[in-house]
């Protein structure tokens, strides 16, 4: 027979609630799959941006370096790049008969990036240290050359700005090194002027070829630049050493993108299955609402499959519209859930393909469910509950156990090395989510059983609770569905937030232990000997620490002012007790170090008197001795200033007092944070999916209340007419909805906190560094969840009572 094709889409308008639910279901489906594609692409771009932030801006393009060359050859080679630098060997240039160590160099536009102390012009620019040592003044001529000094500039020192970053090893001297090892550069105004230098500078020159590039946004741009740059260097044909930092950055970014995508795949599959189950539920409700029409069509000869396509004609357009709206929402909300907003070319088309695929699956599910419903209803087959008899919670729990074994054995996955990215073991990463899913399935099964036996409960002495229980039992299907989605929502939000927060704190704490403080610099032993005083601006925030092989020499009075410590008062108490008495110096034993007297070069005989599990800079192995216990501080390996100040503030204070330093370290940049960020981005998306599920649970709860509005109105109105106080009815609805929300929140939080607490220490991107990741403070998250849950409960109870307050008894009874 011919089905009413044209009337079907228009007939859907008679059930606006079904239309809205259909659109919302595929909107969420489309959002999940599109957001996963966009998030993965954004993660790759964000990883590239992070790698670029750690690279010198002139080292992004592949570069060339060489040394031991004739100076004329170096000048010729340097001219073949955008920013070619040519530097003579270190010699002893003579201006006034007082020769000191120095080298000459030229780099295009270098003079514009120097700070002039005196003079200017286009002659020789002499660094202030050389000018002071050799008593150079403006107008002096270089002996053996026609070049004249026209400016004196402030020496470059770490940390240098981005323009000098790639040249730092050449242009920044090490003031603590021996004479002639390194020196500042005397700059000439043009490359041709290097040929005017005295003959002793004509050999053993150094050259660097750098190329300017615009900042890269996507991996495709980076790969294109890498290919073009390497081809460019090959075409130059110069016998120099090639440096290609970009290829490593691209590899790391690709690995990060792949890790995020693979880690999200199980979550996306689970979300799609839940969404398709929602589509099936909507189709069942549609079949119930269209029962009379479907029976008429079946009697007239329509097959169950034809009736299934009848459902697509009515629900298909809303399902397609919802999927496209999900894609739009995923794109617009990208800044809220993704690590960046830069997408690779074609990513939106890939996301559209995924959306169309899940929309097609939704249409197929609609056809099959509608056909199955018609077949079961009109052809008289007995119900089959085989799927309901399967203990799904045990199946999922078994998968969780297997995931735990993988997690406890492998951690994140492959064996890690410093500076490498982990290849994430997806099965291990899924452990906390599998625990939450198993808890949700178990909770729904127990709730279904409990509500099945609830008619035996007699709580009439508390009528509000009795009525709430009766209403829950009367709607066991929607109630268990809301509980399932609610537990998953709470659990995924908690797991995602806990693991992401743990990665942030782990990166911060590990970098603090690795450096020891926010910033450190190596200084000469003059400060330790008291010959040079520490600047006043550094008092109270900086301490002097001696470093020998396997030991630290600390000042008990100032160490806790600067060092990164979990319990400063305890450490202060321990190191304050390290008072030397005799030839043996008392020491703190750190971690797994031997508990016996030990001799370390440059230090007296050390005897452990107390123990700490870990210590800044030492990690879990070494010894700590008080500075007063070391009689010969000049024999200590090296001395460092540790400070709570940012590195630029620390070095500025030292430069202002003329204190030399070297080997700077910044806590914010010392560790490659990309492995931590990869895990953080992955679980940040998990938390975002949890928010989506929370919206689904809240909307499902409110829709369930709205669908039962007439039933609630009849029972509530009759109850109030029979003498029940409105406050009792209000309390009853609050108990009904509040009990459901409390169960979802309690089970989700317990399952997520327990699983995350077990998993977080093993999700360690840098296991060779202490401390291991730990759960962050989750009280703010708990407070926000309780607040949002309470708001949903109040709104749902208000919706239920609204029908009672506006009901007309005559119409209800009729």
From TrEMBL:
UniProt keywords, alphabetically = Membrane, Transmembrane, Transmembrane helix
Q: Does the keyword Transmembrane helix apply?
A: yes
Q: Establish whether keyword Transmembrane is in the entry.
A: yes
Spans through the membrane = 263-286, 307-328, 348-375, 387-407, 427-451, 472-495, 681-705, 734-758, 778-801
Q: Which domain of life is it from?
A: Bacteria
Q: What is this protein called?
A: Permease
The species this protein belongs to is: Lentzea pudingi
> Which taxonomic lineage does the organism of this UniProt entry have?
Bacteria, Bacillati, Actinomycetota, Actinomycetes, Pseudonocardiales
